[in-house]
Amino acid sequence: AQKVTQAQTEISVVEKEDVTLDCVYETRDTTYYLFWYKQPPSGELVFLIRRNSFDEQNEISGRYSWNFQKSTSSFNFTITASQVVDSAVYFCALSEAQSGNQFYFGTGTSLTVIP
Amino acid sequence: NAGVTQTPKFQVLKTGQSMTLQCAQDMNHEYMSWYRQDPGMGLRLIHYSVGAGITDQGEVPNGYNVSRSTTEDFPLRLLSAAPSQTSVYFCASSYGPGFGEQYFGPGTRLTVT
After folding, report:
1. pLDDT score at A97
2. Cross-chain Cβ contact A105/B100 below 8 Å
3. What is the spatial distance between Cα B32 and Cα B23, in angstroms, rounded to a whole number?
4. Exposed, middle or buried by CB within 10 Å (0-12, 13-18, 19+), for B95?
């Protein structure tokens, strides 16, 4: 079973629109971490955020915000006023502190921001 | 700190050839891993290591070998390359799945003809 599901394969938005990337995870651990990574066209993987399971506060960093809801096992990522430079593939990931030694990645969402 | 380094950046192999992808980190991380990235399939774990001398298989280990003789290095060996191994390979390191994010190398683009 997929531990991290990113149901949106591709999204296109027009510049300055807001866009939300969905991430749903599955775990039985009480202690876990959730991550978002960005992979721009240049190919490197850029770490964006880490959230632990005990901190449900939403976070905002500039135009980026993250909504963590344990009740729905979701960790969604919103880009406000999107820009062309936001065009990339975005990956959500999960790691479990107790029951495994692996990081689990979703299949990614490819975001295209049209000027 | 150099972070996570990978060599080579690009490689073309013929079917049946062998090669080693190199990965090194200078952050004293115990946990290291190899992923392959194929279109539409995200990152799939090949092998990982929780410390020197300890390795384990991930989701797609067939056709690959690893060893971890030092904390810094985690090479990935292709014993007999196949076209199905054409992919982009990423090495990553961290303090461990329960301790924070992974740091990724720049990737190796491998083509097997």
Report:
1. 79
2. no
3. 9
4. middle
For B27, list phi and psi in degrees, rounded to 5. -105, 5
Kindly list the residues from chain B whose CB atom is less than 8 angstroms away from the CB atom of residue A102. 33, 45, 48, 58, 97
Which residues of chain A lie closer than 8 angstroms to B44, CB-CB? 105
Strand duo B76-78 + B87-94: pairing: unpaired
Q: Would the pLDDT of B99 be above 80?
A: no
> Mutation test of the interface with chain A: which of B41, B102, B108, B109, choosing the one with the most A Cβ atoms within 10 A?
B102
Mean pLDDT across chain A: 93
> Exposed, middle or buried, B80 (CB in 10 Å: 0-12/13-18/19+)?
exposed
Question: Which two three-digit tokens encode residue B63?
Answer: 């056709």
- Asked if pLDDT for residue B98 goes beyond 80, the answer is no
- Whether the bond between B61 and the residue before it is cis, its omega within 30 degrees of 0, is no
**Which of B85, B37, B55 minimizes the C-alpha distance to A102?**
B55
Place of tokens 């390359």: B81
> How confident is the model over A59-73, as pLDDT tens digits?
888 999 999 999 999
Q: What is the Cα–Cα distance from A31 to A24, expressed in whole angstroms?
A: 16
For chain B, how many residues are written?
Answer: 113
